[in-house]
């Protein structure tokens, strides 16, 4: 019997992913012929993202970011994925290629068996989180296209509840910081990288140009908790609204001490990688920043978000420097979050996809099925 794109039972997707399906999704019938045509094919290729400006964090600078683009094809339908690998994370196009060469999706006949497929992928290696995310994103894109719905709708999330996204201002000279800030005039929240000796200068420079709320990301750059607390009180006076990863991820006691006394919400980022880290972060941070490249993709990110919510923790959805592919995948989760930092596609000059949009500073989801993208 010939299979078609529309002949899928939506309930099988919800059972496979362990997720609730929105009531608006209509069930459809599906059966497989068992022929070799009903197999998934994974392909991948390296790509380098060119940044508009040199991107400087507390401990590194770069002008480009290596990524690996993935595709999963099934009966004429293609799902797209991406692994973004900033060098400081320890993954590369070479390590991603080696991992992806091990992935045999041809053994699975039903792409809606997301749990089974991604359990298999996860157990191929203890690391390679970004490479795993590239498979996860492509699989979700494929499954959503086969179902005919975007993932925010499959998950039953309200697109009206998406937050504003911040726009990132990297550490730089005052002249460049002013230029970047003016470029970000459409955003309602800025995200400023701190963690070097010029932290106050960064904020004071931006305040010469705009009074919009600011989130700061220290990237573990502060070393002394008392000085960090003094800095947070000063930042609150400057209109800062949250602090991300103020001190080393390997110093939970100092982070907990700081969080207990901080007048601003403190979020864990580098210290929260995967699902087991969520509950470990409770009491150390007020909230967590979930990134697909850290947690192996959308499946685990959704579970992490639900666990964080059940533990009364605040939630932020973030990204690396990415194309609209991975950013749009992360945006599917954004209605669950108070904060979002989904601007990675806006920091590059060579995006390959059309996806979610930012309108008057707010994340706006579209009705494209899957992760909400089209290849340009």
Give structural notes.
Helix content is 32%, strand content 21%. The protein has 376 residues and is α/β, with parallel strands linked by helices. The protein has two domains: 10-153, Enolase-like, N-terminal domain (Enolase-like, domain 1); 158-375, Enolase-like C-terminal domain (TIM Barrel, Alpha-Beta Barrel), CATH 3.20.20.120. Strand 7, helix 9 (252-261) and strand 8 form a beta-alpha-beta unit. The chain is globular, with a radius of gyration of 21 Å. Residues 1-36 have low confidence and may be disordered.
Record the SSE blueprint:
Layout: H1 10-17, E1 41-56, E2 61-74, E3 77-84, H2 93-100, H3 114-122, H4 129-147, H5 151-154, E4 166-169, H6 174-183, E5 189-193, H7 199-207, E6 214-217, H8 225-237, E7 240-244, H9 252-261, E8 266-268, H10 276-281, E9 287-290, H11 292-295, H12 298-310, E10 314-317, H13 324-331, E11 339-340, E12 353-354, E13 357-359, E14 362-364, E15 374-375
Parallel strand pairs: 4-5, 5-6, 6-7, 7-8, 8-9, 9-10, 10-11
Antiparallel strand pairs: 1-2, 2-3, 12-15, 13-14
Helix pairs in contact: 2-4, 3-4, 6-7, 8-9
List the secondary-structure elements in sequence, H or E: HEEEHHHHEHEHEHEHEHEHHEHEEEEE
How many strand elements?
Answer: 15
* Fraction of residues in helix: 25-40%
Query: What gyration radius follows from the Cα positions, in whole Å?
Result: 21 Å
CATH superfamily name of the largest domain?
Answer: Enolase-like C-terminal domain
Strand count, sense and closure of the main sheet? Answer: 8 strands, parallel
Specify the CATH class of the largest domain. Alpha Beta
Number of helices: 13
- The global form is globular
* Stretches with pLDDT under 50, minimum 5 residues: 1-36
Q: Please report which band the strand proportion falls in: under 5%, 5-15%, 15-25%, 25-35%, 35-45% or over 45%.
A: 15-25%
The pLDDT mean sits at 90
Number of domains: 2
What CATH calls the topology of the largest domain is TIM Barrel
Strand order in the sheet with the most strands: 4-5-6-7-8-9-10-11
Task: Indicate the structural class.
Answer: alpha/beta
| Distance between the amino and carboxyl termini | 34 Å
